[in-house]
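Extended Data, panel c. Modelled sequence:
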Amino acid sequence: MTSDYKKHLYALVLAGGPGKRLWPLSTEKTPKQFLRLFAGKTLFELTIDRVRKLLPWKRIYVGIVGNKYKEIILGLCPRLPPANIIVEPEGRDSGPAHGLGALYIRKKDPDAVIVNAAADQIIDPEKNYLKAMSVAAEYAYGSKMLIAVGVVPSYAHTGVGYIHKGKKLSRISKTDIFNIDNFTEKPRSRIARDYINSGKHFWNANNYVWRADVYLSALRKHAKNIYKWLELIDRALGTNNEKTALKKYFPKVPKISIDYAISEKAKNFAMIIGEYYWSDVSNWQEVWNNLEKDKAKNAVYSFTHPKNLTILLSAKDNLVVSAGVDVVVTKVKGLVIVASQKGVLITKKEYSQDVKTAVSLLMDKKATLGN
C-alpha cells in the first residue's frame, strides 16, 4: 500500500435534517446535530473537530437538507468554504446523500477517497478513530473496495445495523481488514442478543470510507434508479445549470438508506474493527448513556437554562431534561422526561426508539387542525 492516498483524502459530513426522536428539543428549526448536549459543543462541531485532525478545511464537505441550516453551519465553522456545503433540495436518505456528495467530490478530484461521517455521533478515543479512518482510506484508495467500520457491541441494540465479519483480507499498520459476509439492518431483540454473543457481529457505525468513483459505480450497478438521476445532475455540475438540475432531478431520486441501496447487495464491501467507543445519538436512551449520572443512575440536564431547578425524590435510573421550566420527579424509575415550553415527553427509556412514530402522529394531528 502507499501513502499517496493522503493527497486525495476528503471528508463528507452528513448533517441531514431534523431528527424527531429527540423531540421536543430537536425541531425543524434546530435539529439534534445543532444542540449543545455534550461538552458545551454541538454534535456537529464534535464531528468537524474529529475530521479536522485528518484534513484541511478545503477538503471537508458537508451535506445538508435545505438551505435553512447553511447559516447555522457557517456560524459554527466560519472557515469552512461555503462552496463545500452540498444542499439537497429534499431529503432522500443516506444512499442518495452519499452519492450526491461523491459526485461533488469526484468533480474536484477524480481519485478522491472519502471519509464519510455522520454528524450525530459520540466517538472516543479520537486517536483510535483517526487511525481506523487512515487505515481504511489507504486500503480503499488502492483497491475497489467499500469499507465499513464495525464496533464491538456492548448490548443488544435494536436501533442499529449489524455487520457479520468474514475472512481476513489484508493488514495495514497492525490493523486487520476483513471481508463482510452480510449486513443486517436493525434486528429484533432475540436476534440482536444472538449477535452480541457470537463474537462475529459488530455494530455498523456508519463510518464508511471509499473512493468516490467506486461508490458511484456501486450505485450504477445496484441502485440504477438512484444513479440515473445523479448522472443527470453530474452532467450539470460546474455549469450555469447546476442548481436547476439539482432542484429538478434530486427530488426524483428514491428515498432509501445506504443499507438497502448498497450494503446488503454489494460484494466488494470490507470492514475494519473500530477500537473506540461509539454512540449514535439518535434517541434519548443514547443521550442518557452519554451523560454523567448520580448515585441513583439519574442523568439530569438543564438545556440552555442552567438556573432552572430539577428536583428528584426517590427516583432511579431516569433521564430528566429541562429547557426553560422547573421539573419535579418523584418515585419513578427508568423514564425519559423532557420538559420544554414547546412540549413535554414522557416515555420509558427502552422505548425511546418509538418517539419518532409518536411525534409523527402529533405533527399529522397538528396539520389536520391547522396548527
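Residues 3-282 form a domain with the Spore Coat Polysaccharide Biosynthesis Protein SpsA; Chain A fold (CATH 3.90.550.10). This feature is highlighted in the accompanying rendering.
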